[in-house]
């Protein structure tokens, strides 16, 4: 048996009520209410470990409520069981977090309130299909926004569904409860009606964004379900609100909701200004499905009659004065439609003309040129969204936009409401940041403030599909009959695609066919890699390229000599990004990219016997030149790429080329230590068929200690540095060597030696005559003037 009730349990006196017979149903119901009112629920007020049974007894025409309690024995409970509690929230603190921590920009309050108004209109339109009487005489479905700078207020009025008193308490009095979400849930449960996907709300906190700019909010609402109109009021930083019935006939609404924001002192001058409100509507709510009117100041020209003043000298005649008609401009206030542009992406692409796409592009992105191309598509399946993408008619004016992923070119909408255009590569990679367009989806994973696109599988799927559609659009331009379109595209956006070769290895197959370069066979027109492969010879196994700083230097580079002689096409990479892009590609259609300025160049048709004989013949010369140059070169070898130049300086297979070395030296924050490391080794290749090399070969065998031969080797190396695209370490020293060699080459030519000898001989004779006659000869000026005398009068 359980022990008796201990003193620790609080025992209250018996509760008694007058007795009434309970035979009738009415009395039974009353008895039931008594049980509810007087019997504590769930043992409330008892300590843990105490059980209590409540009994209702009849004593002396009265009911007696009695508690028979006992201390409960300890019982074995299952693991994990325990008491269940509800979360509690401090309302004022929660509102403070929503207002001050949820949103990044104050201006989004208008987007949230307009979205709520749009939902109210959508609900009314949906319900009126089955209940036409709900529309009544409430007027057209519309939204009107009226700022009042004098009083510092903004009034937003819609003719939507409105709210009853219970709905005011339920929707505005319960934080984070979305009326739209509840409405959609009810529609989904009713399978006959289905769900309206055009509704925007989902979080239940958008209304409270009004307190971002308002110190007081007044909501006046009239629902078709009720004959009464109610007013909801609340002030900022308060945990309570007031609801009252509207009794002033001047404030009566036929239907819908009117929200009045009493702006804070700091926000009156910005958000009570009519132009600011119109711009916010155009930015965030331009494509809402209902007309949005804003109260704007306008001007018009009117014709008025004015008294004509009397001319000077004329007396004013009695009677009616003369009047003349003039025009003047007067200002007035009126409603103006703010969302004229319709959401073009919601229409069927087959029904939209090209002119409509171009007009939408110019209005949406403030452009003056027609786009080069556009694509309009709808994606269904795991992710459903609609989009229109454009390629602009002109590229960015500065290089910063090329590498800036936050270009605000992609405007994200959710159910036609603008969410954001500030993305950091979530929807488009950096190299496609030039693409402009609109993306609209109903099920994007947004955070509560609707400002941040959360990383998720849905976002990754959207990104892939947008990229694929963009490449399809560019591919169509490249394959069109009008070649000028793609030429224009490449001039403006070719750098972006080359950047994609570096940053997006997963899309190399889509990017590579779109690349264009100049080549040794086509120096005027750009060549694609597909055209290059079509023109390749049977024995050619690689795609050859040369990276230089200009097209002119590429044409005259010594690396090309043998390849041009063998009719092998070479691509010219003349932009700084070209070489890095090609190195990231590595291959295309099983053909490797080969830099002809690096060692171990294989042309595919080498004569091994002839090469072996040349190496044997000039092996001693190569060793001798290497000894003369020392650590300046890694080795000296016979070249298979030269035909007219005596030598060339090539880079090691794994080091920087001359072009890359030049680019890295030009970096503002370049590291000199890494420059020395990555520069790699330099290899001097000599042409065995050139006369200078043959002369040096003879000097090596007959006079290896000759100082003149040593000077020739030094000058040959310095010249190879320049002709191969490298930068000499000491340009002044190189200049002195060239001057010295020039003096040796031209010394005594063109009769200069004979003239100098004659002058010396005449000066010697004059000195002898001067020794004989020590007096100076005085020469009188001539009185005879020549006809060609410049001083003649």
From TrEMBL:
Q: Which intervals carry biased composition (Basic and acidic residues)?
A: 782-793
The reply to whether Nucleotide-binding figures as a keyword in the UniProt entry is: yes
Ranges of Acidic residues composition bias in the record: 304-318, 756-768
Q: Where does ATP bind?
A: 112, 116, 158, 163, 178-179, 202-207, 257, 450
Q: GO molecular function terms here? A: ATP binding; ATP hydrolysis activity; ATP-dependent protein folding chaperone; unfolded protein binding
Q: Which family does it belong to?
A: Belongs to the heat shock protein 90 family.
The UniProt annotation puts the region (Disordered) at 304-325, 754-793
Task: Kindly give the NCBIfam families that the UniProt entry links to this protein.
Answer: PRK05218.1 (NF003555)
User: What Gene Ontology terms describe where this protein resides (cellular component)?
Assistant: cytoplasm
* Descriptive protein name: Histidine kinase/HSP90-like ATPase domain-containing protein
Alphabetically sorted, this entry's keywords are: ATP-binding, Chaperone, Nucleotide-binding, Stress response, Transit peptide
Q: Disulfide bond among the record's keywords?
A: no
- One Pfam match: HSP90
Q: Residue limits of the Histidine kinase/HSP90-like ATPase domain?
A: 105-267
Q: Which CDD domains match?
A: HATPase_Hsp90-like
């Amino acid at each position: 048996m359980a022990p008796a009730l201990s003193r620790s349990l609080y025992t209250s006196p018996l509760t008694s009520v007058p007795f009434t017979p309970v035979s009738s149903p009415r009395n039974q119901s009353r008895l039931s209410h008594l049980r509810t009112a007087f019997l504590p629920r769930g043992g409330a007020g008892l300590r843990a470990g105490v059980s209590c049974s409540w009994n209702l007894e009849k004593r002396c025409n009265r009911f007696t409520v009695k508690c028979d309690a006992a201390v409960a024995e300890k019982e074995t409970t299952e693991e994990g069981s325990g008491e269940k509690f509800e979360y509690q929230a401090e309302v004022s603190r929660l509102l403070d977090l929503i207002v001050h921590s949820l949103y990044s920009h104050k201006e989004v309050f208008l987007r949230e309130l307009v979205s709520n108004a749009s939902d109210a209109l959508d609900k009314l339109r949906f319900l009126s299909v089955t209940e036409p009487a709900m529309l009544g005489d409430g007027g057209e479905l519309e939204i009107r926004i009226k700022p009042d700078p004098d009083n510092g207020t903004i009034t937003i009025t819609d003719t939507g569904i409105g709210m009853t008193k219970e709905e005011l308490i339920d929707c505005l009095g319960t934080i984070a409860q979305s009326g739209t979400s509840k409405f959609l849930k009810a529609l989904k449960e009713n399978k006959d009606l289905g769900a309206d996907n055009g509704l925007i709300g989902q979080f239940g906190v958008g209304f409270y964004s009004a307190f971002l700019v308002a110190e007081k909010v007044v909501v006046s609402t009239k629902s078709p379900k009720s004959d009464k109109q109610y007013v909801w009021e609340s002030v900022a930083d308060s945990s309570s609100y007031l609801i009252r019935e509207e009794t002033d006939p001047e404030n009566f609404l036929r239907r819908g909701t009117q929200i009045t924001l009493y702006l804070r002192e700091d926000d009156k001058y910005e958000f009570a200004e009519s132009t600011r409100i119109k711009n916010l509507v155009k930015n965030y709510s331009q494509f809402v499905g209902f007309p949005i009117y804003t109260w704007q100041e306008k001007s018009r020209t009117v014709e008025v009659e004015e008294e004509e003043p009397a001319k000077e000298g004329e007396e004013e005649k009695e009677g009616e004065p003369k009047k003349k008609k003039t025009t003047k401009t007067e200002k007035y206030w009126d409603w103006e439609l703010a969302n004229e542009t319709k959401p073009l992406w919601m229409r069927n692409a087959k029904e939209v003309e090209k002119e409509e796409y171009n007009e939408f592009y110019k209005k949406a992105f403030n452009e003056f040129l027609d786009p080069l191309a556009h694509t309009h598509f709808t994606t269904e399946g795991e992710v459903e969204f609609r989009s229109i993408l454009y390629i602009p008619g002109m590229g960015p004016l500065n290089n910063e936009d090329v590498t800036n992923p936050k270009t605000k070119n992609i405007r994200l909408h959710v159910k036609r409401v603008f969410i954001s255009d500030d993305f950091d590569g979530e929807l488009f990679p950096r190299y496609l940041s030039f693409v402009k367009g609109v993306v609209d989806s109903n099920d994007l994973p947004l955070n509560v403030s609707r400002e941040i696109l959360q990383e998720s599988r849905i976002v990754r799927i959207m990104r892939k599909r947008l990229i694929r559609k963009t490449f399809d659009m560019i591919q169509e331009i490249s394959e069109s009959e009008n070649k000028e379109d793609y030429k224009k595209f490449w001039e403006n956006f070719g750098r972006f695609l080359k950047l994609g070769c570096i940053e997006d290895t997963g899309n190399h197959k889509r990017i590579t066919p779109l690349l264009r370069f100049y080549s040794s066979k086509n120096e005027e027109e750009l060549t694609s890699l597909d055209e290059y492969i079509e023109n390749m010879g049977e024995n050619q196994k690689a795609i050859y390229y040369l990276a230089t700083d200009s097209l002119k230097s590429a044409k005259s580079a010594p690396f090309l000599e043998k390849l041009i002689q063998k009719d092998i096409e070479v691509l010219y990479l003349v932009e700084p990004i070209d070489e890095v892009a090609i190195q990231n590609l590595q291959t295309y259609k099983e053909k490797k990219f080969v830099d002809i300025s690096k060692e171990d160049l294989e042309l595919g048709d080498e004569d091994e016997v002839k090469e072996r004989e040349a190496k044997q013949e000039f092996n001693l010369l190569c060793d001798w030149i290497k000894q003369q140059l020392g650590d300046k070169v890694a080795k000296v070898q016979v070249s298979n790429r030269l035909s007219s130049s005596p030598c060339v300086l090539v880079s090691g297979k794994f080091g920087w080329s001359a072009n890359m070395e030049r680019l890295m030296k030009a970096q503002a924050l370049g590291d000199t230590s890494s420059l020395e490391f990555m520069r790699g080794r330099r290899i001097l290749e000599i042409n065995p068929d050139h006369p200078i090399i043959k002369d040096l070969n003879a000097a090596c065998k007959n006079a290896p200690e000759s100082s003149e031969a040593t000077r020739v080797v030094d000058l040959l190396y310095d010249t190879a540095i320049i002709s191969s695209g490298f930068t000499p370490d000491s340009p002044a020293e190189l200049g002195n060597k060239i001057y010295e060699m020039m003096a040796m080459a031209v010394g005594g030519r063109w009769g200069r030696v004979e003239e100098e000898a004659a002058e010396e001989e005449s000066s010697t004779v004059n000195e002898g005559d001067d020794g004989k006659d020590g007096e100076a000869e005085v020469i009188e000026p001539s009185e005879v003037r020549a006809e060609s005398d410049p001083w003649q009068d």
